[in-house]
Amino acid sequence: MACLHLGSLFLLLGLVGFASFPAEAAIKKYQFDIQVKNVSRLCHAKPIVTVNGRFPGPTIYVHEGDRVLVNVTNHAQYNMSIHWHGLKQFRNGWADGPAYITQCPIKSGNSYTYDFNVTGQRGTLWWHAHILWLRATVYGAIVIMPEEGTPYPFPQPYMEANLLLGEWWNTDVEEVVKKGSKLGLPPAMSDAHTINGKPGPLFPCSEKHTFAMEVEWGKTYLLRIINSALNDELFFAIAGHTMTVVEIDAVYTKPFTTQTLLIAPGQTTNVLVKANKAPGRYFMAARPFNDVPIPVDNKTATAIFEYKGVPKTIIPILPQLPTPNDTEFVMSYNDKLRSLNSPKFPAKVPLKVDRHLFYTIGLGRNPCATCVNGTQLTASLNNITFMMPQVGLLQAHYFKVKGVFRTDFPDRPLTTFNYTGAPLTANLGTSSGTRLSKVAFNSTVELILQDTNLLTVESHPFHLHGYNFFVVGRGIGNFNPAKDPAKFNLVDPPERNTVGVPTGGWTAIRFRADNPGVWFMHCHLELHTSWGLKMAFVVEDGKGKDDSVLPPPKDLPLC
Ligand SMILES: *[C@@H]1O[C@H](CO)[C@@H](O)[C@H](O)[C@H]1NC(C)=O
Ligand SMILES: *[C@@H]1O[C@H](CO)[C@@H](O)[C@H](O)[C@H]1NC(C)=O
Ligand SMILES: *[C@@H]1O[C@H](CO)[C@@H](O)[C@H](O)[C@H]1NC(C)=O
Ligand SMILES: *[C@@H]1O[C@H](CO)[C@@H](O)[C@H](O)[C@H]1NC(C)=O
Ligand SMILES: *[C@@H]1O[C@H](CO)[C@@H](O)[C@H](O)[C@H]1NC(C)=O
Ligand SMILES: *[C@@H]1O[C@H](CO)[C@@H](O)[C@H](O)[C@H]1NC(C)=O
Ligand SMILES: *[C@@H]1O[C@H](CO)[C@@H](O)[C@H](O)[C@H]1NC(C)=O
Ligand SMILES: *[C@@H]1O[C@H](CO)[C@@H](O)[C@H](O)[C@H]1NC(C)=O
Ligand SMILES: *[C@@H]1O[C@H](CO)[C@@H](O)[C@H](O)[C@H]1NC(C)=O
Ligand SMILES: *[C@@H]1O[C@H](CO)[C@@H](O)[C@H](O)[C@H]1NC(C)=O
């Protein structure tokens, strides 16, 4: 359970006086000990990196308005940093977490206290390691309850449960990655998918590694579903039951009912499920969506939704999931996502755009003398493969350190071509650099993310740090600036922090750059992040006294 130190909470409140806080605001303290622990799955035991020896890690449980202090103490041999995925970290990039972007890593034997306020957000988010591929095992849920006394804008559930979907490798993930990059090939795919760290009985030695939730007939449950997988977009369904989607990425949606969800790495989806079917045992199942001929781990993770009083010997039935290449389902599912856009929770979509950006997403191949094929796979935005700096970009920005990054990331590709035309398999080199895009404080930005057929088309879930954005449009083929904007939804588009760019298509997002700092943007497929499919925005300080980056905390790790 969350370790909330009530003593220090009252002490701190006492020191500053109750009057300066809204009655319900609290300080929630957590201790995250990064520890290596032996864990066994699929008949294989191996040491994994964990928080407090737990896999998945502990849930951060707060109310909107709370302040959170997480002391991360690193007892492992790896450098560490933790990202609070989807938390806006207003003026407070120091607590965002991506290594070498907003902080230097927490070295072995050191501690860093992430100190942030949860303001203007409520719903499900999650946290994960943001260095190397350590998020394979270092992740957990963030549950933000509405302010005390504020109900959900949907029927109150009887109970809630978190479902973290993940990926499991039988061998050391860091070794798998090292081997892949040495060969210049994708690392070996995962051996299983998991639900709450457990693969379920379709895998060997997994009887005791099956997550089960008991439900009472007639009651409604809120499931907080998180895709913590590294490289797979997942379908999720519960046999015999429908789900009502009520929230995505900690933003309420117009409710709609579906048999299956699609959830990309980084995304969260809250659903209501009514336990009103024949009392029995039903599988919940997750399996990848993949509509290109690239091999993925397509194995199905299962957990059990079981009615109280039903014998545990009954073999559960499996839900019917879409075929892995069911693009049509994915398009129609995404079309159903709409912001709630109620008076209390309005969708503040920027209607006027100050800055138009167009970024192409490309895969490529660079020469590599030591690699098996003489080439190394790579990835780029606007043909730039992002190079990680040696020091934190936010520090370099705040302290005006020269020579760490450039601010000339191009607003559009230098060379235009038929982006989603026939596959291009020649001239796949990219240029590389630590190039950022400078954005004026409080300006409105529209970004078109355009997939390309360099090597292959593929679907890419993009995550922006420091902001939510509105997904105003989406299409297949090349974005047409003359025709497509007329079809944008500027009324109730989904608001989120991670969005899928369709295979061979484009996605248009809009946001208001009102959060100064350095904010990472990257494909949330870890494979592509490591290949360079990432960049960062430098959002300048504004003129007002509350419009600039806060001073760094005293214990900020140094490189
Ligand atoms: C972890 O398991 C491996 C293999 O079973 C074993 O060699 C090792 O001693 C264990 N380590 C710990 C810390 O228990
Ligand atoms: C963080 O935890 C470590 C290990 O328990 C402790 O030594 C350190 O003092 C803590 N830091 C703070 C600021 O409480
Ligand atoms: C969080 O809120 C408290 C109380 O308003 C304030 O003192 C503190 O500076 C805030 N912290 C951050 C990181 O914004
Ligand atoms: C999973 O992939 C394997 C090949 O890697 C294939 O034989 C199998 O049919 C696939 N399963 C599904 C459900 O697509
Ligand atoms: C999808 O995969 C199935 C086999 O699982 C195949 O029969 C079908 O042709 C594929 N559909 C498309 C559109 O590629
Ligand atoms: C690279 O080499 C591997 C192993 O020899 C081979 O299977 C693969 O087809 C090659 N891939 C490319 C893209 O050249
Ligand atoms: C781009 O390529 C597609 C597919 O090959 C083709 O249908 C389309 O006409 C091309 N567009 C242009 C402008 O050449
Ligand atoms: C990307 O940059 C490389 C290196 O400058 C160049 O060779 C290649 O043609 C460029 N590709 C595209 C699609 O612009
Ligand atoms: C940002 O711009 C909007 C629209 O012009 C304005 O309402 C808001 O006050 C501005 N915010 C700041 C912090 O300047
Ligand atoms: C940890 O990070 C520091 C600072 O960037 C770096 O100097 C060091 O080599 C890293 N250590 C490991 C084990 O990667």
Summarize the structure.
The chain is mainly beta and 559 residues long.
Could you walk me through the main structural features you see in this protein, from its secondary elements to its overall organization?
This protein is mainly beta. The chain has three domains: 2-145, Sandwich (Immunoglobulin-like), CATH 2.60.40; 159-335, Sandwich (Immunoglobulin-like), CATH 2.60.40.420; 355-547, Immunoglobulin-like (Sandwich). The protein is built from five helices and 32 strands. The strands form seven sheets. Strands 10-9-12-17-14-15 form a six-stranded mixed β-sheet, with no helix packed on it. Strands 21-20-25-30-27-28 form a six-stranded mixed β-sheet. The chain has a five-stranded mixed β-sheet with strand order 11-19-18-13-16. Strand 20 (355-367) and strand 21 form a beta hairpin. The longest helix is centred in the first third of the chain and has 11 residues, at 6-16. Mean pLDDT is 95; it is low at 1-23. The structure holds 2-acetamido-2-deoxy-beta-D-glucopyranose (10 copies). Residues 383, 415, 427, 429-431 line the site of one 2-acetamido-2-deoxy-beta-D-glucopyranose. The site of one 2-acetamido-2-deoxy-beta-D-glucopyranose (NAG) has 5 residues, from loops.
CATH level 4 superfamily of the largest domain:
Cupredoxins -  blue copper proteins
Structural class: mainly beta
- Classify the beta-strand content into a percent band: 35-45%
Specify the biggest β-sheet.
Answer: 6 strands, mixed
Question: What is the CATH T-level topology of the largest domain?
Answer: Immunoglobulin-like
CATH class of the largest domain: Mainly Beta
Q: Tell how many strands the DSSP assignment holds.
A: 32
> What is the total number of structural domains?
3
The distinct bound ligands, ions and cofactors come out as: 2-acetamido-2-deoxy-beta-D-glucopyranose
Low-confidence stretches: 1-23
Helical fraction equals under 10%
Largest beta sheet: strand ordering: 10-9-12-17-14-15
